[in-house]
Predict the structure.
Amino acid sequence: MAKGVWIVAELRDGAFRKVTFELASTARKLADQLGEEACAVVCGSGVAGIAGELGKYGIDKVYVADNAAFEPYTTDAHAAAVAKVVKDNDASILLVAASFQGKDLAPRLVGKLATGMASDCTDVKIADGKLLAVRPMYAGKCFGEIVVSATPQIAALRPNVFPIVESAKAGAVETFDPGLGDLKTKVLEVQKEESGKIDVSEANIIVSGGRGMKGPENFAILEELAAVLGAAVGASRAAVDAGWRAQSDQVGQTGKVVSPNLYIACGISGAIQHLAGMSSSKYIVAVNKDPEAPIFQKADYGLVDDLFKVVPALTQECKKLLG
Amino acid sequence: MNIIACVKQVPDTEAQIKVKADGSGIDEGGIKWVMNPYDEFGVEEALKLKEKLGGDVTIVSIGPARAMETIRTALAMGAEKGVHIDDPALNAADAYATAAALAAAIKGLPYDIIFCGQRAIDDDSAQVGAILAELLGVPQVTFVTKLEIDGTKVKAVRPIEGAQLVIETSLPCVITATKGLNEPRYASLPGIMKAKKKPVDAKNAAALGVSADAKSKVAKMVPPPARPPGKILCADDTPEGKAAELAKLLREEAKVI
């Protein structure tokens, strides 16, 4: 019978990404509820040294495949290795990050393993011995509770939602042969964006601008506030379609669906598509001149005023508080 | 070049979504249906590729009778023909069964490249393109923002967090399209007239030899949790006063900064 809660570790440049620790901590919790082991698959290049680190977050056993083909990530190398090791060990539950990498890998695994998956989950638990995953659908206009009847039961967890919990466990490390066949894709080039930029899908805090920003140059005041708060800068569809911000910054039904701790919406009126994409944020602040703007119906704190005066003042206040 | 574009009909982004009282699904009353916006990028790229390299574009869609409107929209944009998979069992299928039905339909057609949207904006599952690629045994590049084809060589750009990857693979393959890839065209009036006469094949699960057995299911749907009413800040009514009050609340009450 299938057994064990597994995770796929996500690495970048030879180090674990934060979401990996979120996955490990969640796997520990689920494994304890089932009375089973928590295991991790680490596919990387020169990673034997760091693999044991996952024990600190509750992983009992780490399965490592070390191969130059894993860095940078390609679908075929990772899918082949992960499918092999979880099949050989008859894993019951498999947690993957709902990151760009995980969203590419996980459904390929669904195909390889002929199973089902709950995408982009914001909560997972065990009910009647099975995984019950909760996820926003229609960009958060409603939520679905998903059960998977085949094994492994795959769930992709949204980054930055699940807590990281340190544990006293010491993970055992074992290597496995990924049995890589013919690889059909390769990465020709990695074009890095400006350093330090935080992606909206992973940010704790997002400072977002909309049509009320009036032009691309005015986003500088949001960048300043974001720099003080360690936040990412997001944008509404109106701002992206106007060419003021990159598409990768768009929050909403046809952009990214986000769940930060704090979402500060500046000059965003709150079209239903935008509200859908950010309404699962823990705290929402709206800054808008128009007191009738629909965004105020979602906001925990509303400031009816000129954002060009409020935002710089807020930046100064936050500097004082955090300085 | 034989090009396939998979499309799904979804509720318009402006639709209010109401969950049925028993949690079995959404109330479809009053919903306006449109082509999934990410699939539009796929159809547009398919048409651009055809215009550049020659060949034809086949639209494949799973859905009830109304999904024909979305197939006709794609035909009006310039695709040559369609396949409409309409089967009550498949219309509510999970990602695996959906991809299996698409794979079965596509296996019966000549194809060099297949386009899907990176996700459908209703179930937001972002799975079908990659499962389809696996079931057809071809490579995939997901979330593509730039695509170049040279002979059988494929060069695609996709974003990851903080970077973009330039990926090389070969035809045949599955590409999932995302915003930035292109600007989808509108169907012209002559295009709409012509689309009415273009052939659309009807298929069901039995004809495709696939089962609609779901590997996963939505056990229950619930509305999003209600948010408590917010506070409108008005400390001394100056922008500076309000900003100071907000900073204090975020620090001391919400504890998020």
